[in-house]
């Protein structure tokens, strides 16, 4: 869950949306997942492995949880991951197994060779990774990270197993193609097994596509069942921790913004909830939240606040309004940059007293586990609030 928080910055119902027919020339893979038990994010594709025939179409159906995703593959991806594939396979068999493996070496190999959505977690998006890009040779990739691949390289083509770099770019969460990416398999595609991954969340969010001329292709209903079974394996451990937190027995107690403990640290999934969802308090009494992961505590939230926006030049960037504090104090600078190796001590920030007026008020982002945020409400009333980064992460403070 810590890596989920650092990477930034819905499907029970979703698998049904994938369809259940056994015929047809397309199959759908779920990107992310929605649990019936909590609002959350699952950084994986479901199911992880599929087999198709040349000439078929793979549809990637994204559940928007506030985490951007891509579908990225090609010979350069396969070559880069080969020396580390054992780590990826071990992770999917047992997520805790990666604790003592050279994860940094693996991520560094991708950073040095291929476009990475957020290189170095600086907040600056590599435009080559953000936009579709289809090239036959690796040397055709632009060198500069500030411009997307040329328009000719952004035009969708069938995957034939020979392209060096083949990427959907950011799967948009709105518009006519919102949350959908279609990938056609060329009629003359080279048989074999190909790794694909999200170029934001790296190969720990990855899958495999096997192309076979003579394969018996699994029905969509079977694919859905298998995907749900894989997702449910991650639901149980994070749900167990979430239940402890709701009962007041978690690593942190009181009002929580986020969820998780050491047992969920290496799971690329997490609960995105305020606990409890409704806080009852008195006028001028301090209300304090403890952060678990990076979230915002935001009141008077606009009805729609896009996480990613396009500039006049057509480049993709994160909406800075989401991460910056608004009319309230924010977190100390650059805390997230030191999180994994040298986590600084927790800080407590007091936003003072507020009467509910004045438009958007937000803590902003940049928080780490154990940081706290305190507000006093000077008037009775009901105060809805949300995390601006993660849709569905909402709560309410009732003041009497």
Layout: helices, strands, pairs:
Blueprint: H1 2-7, H2 12-17, E1 26-31, E2 40-42, E3 45-46, E4 49-52, E5 57-62, E6 72-73, H3 75-81, H4 85-93, H5 103-113, H6 127-130, E7 133-135, H7 151-154, E8 165-167, E9 180-184, E10 192-198, E11 202-211, H8 220-246, E12 255-258, E13 269-271, E14 274-275, E15 278-281, E16 286-292, E17 298-299, E18 308-310, E19 316-318, H9 320-323, H10 339-342, E20 348-354, E21 361-362, E22 372-377, E23 381-386, E24 394-399
Mean pLDDT: 89
Physical arrangement of strands within the biggest beta sheet: 14-12-16-22-20
List the domain count as a whole number: 2
* CATH homology group of the largest domain: Cupredoxins -  blue copper proteins
Approximately how much helix is present in the residues?
Answer: 10-25%
Query: Taking Cα atoms only, what radius of gyration do you get, to the nearest Å?
Result: 22 Å
Helix tally equals: 10
* Beta strand count: 24
**Which parts are unreliable, with pLDDT below 50 for 5 consecutive residues or more?**
1-14
Which CATH class of the largest domain?
Answer: Mainly Beta
Approximate shape = globular
First-to-last CA distance: 35 Å
- At the third CATH level, what is the topology name of the largest domain? Immunoglobulin-like
Based on helices, strands and strand pairing, what is the structural class? alpha+beta
Query: What is the name of the CATH architecture of the largest domain?
Result: Sandwich
Largest sheet: 5 strands, mixed
β-strand percent reads 25-35%
């Amino acid at each position: 869950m810590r890596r989920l928080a650092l990477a930034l910055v819905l499907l029970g119902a979703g698998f049904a949306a994938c369809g259940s027919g056994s015929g047809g020339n397309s199959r759908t893979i779920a990107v992310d997942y929605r649990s019936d038990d909590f609002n959350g994010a699952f950084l994986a594709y479901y199911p992880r492995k599929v087999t198709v025939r040349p000439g078929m179409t793979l549809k990637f159906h994204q559940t928007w949880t506030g985490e951007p995703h891509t579908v990225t593959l090609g010979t350069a991806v396969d070559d880069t991951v080969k020396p580390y594939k054992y780590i990826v396979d071990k992770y999917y068999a047992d997520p805790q197994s990666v604790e003592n493996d050279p994860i940094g070496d693996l991520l560094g190999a991708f950073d040095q060779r291929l476009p990475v959505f957020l290189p170095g977690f600086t907040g600056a998006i590599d435009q080559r990774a953000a936009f579709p890009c289809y090239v036959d040779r690796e040397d055709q990739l632009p060198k500069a990270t500030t411009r997307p691949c040329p328009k000719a390289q952004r035009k969708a083509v069938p995957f034939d197993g020979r392209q060096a770099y083949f990427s959907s770019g950011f799967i948009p969460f709105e518009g006519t193609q919102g949350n959908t990416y279609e990938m056609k398999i060329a009629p003359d595609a080279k048989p074999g097994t190909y790794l694909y991954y999200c170029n934001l969340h790296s190969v720990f969010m990855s899958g495999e596509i096997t192309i076979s001329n003579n394969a018996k292709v699994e029905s969509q209903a079977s694919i859905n069942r298998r995907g749900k079974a894989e997702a449910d394996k991650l639901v149980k451990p994070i749900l167990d921790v979430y239940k402890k937190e709701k009962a007041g027995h978690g690593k942190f107690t009181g009002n929580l913004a986020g969820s998780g403990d050491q047992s969920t640290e290496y799971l690329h999934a997490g609960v995105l909830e305020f606990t409890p969802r409704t806080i009852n308090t008195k006028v001028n009494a301090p209300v304090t939240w403890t952060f678990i992961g990076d979230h915002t505590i935001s009141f008077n939230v606009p009805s729609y606040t896009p996480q990613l926006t396009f500039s006049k030049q057509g480049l993709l960037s994160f909406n800075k309004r989401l991460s910056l504090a608004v009319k309230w104090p924010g977190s100390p600078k650059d805390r997230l940059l030191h999180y994994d190796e040298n986590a600084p001590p927790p800080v407590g920030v007091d936003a003072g007293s507020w009467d509910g007026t004045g438009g958007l008020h937000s803590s902003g982002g940049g928080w780490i586990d154990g940081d706290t945020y305190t507000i006093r409400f000077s008037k009775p009333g009901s105060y809805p609030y949300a995390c601006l980064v993660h849709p569905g992460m909402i709560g309410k403070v009732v003041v009497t």
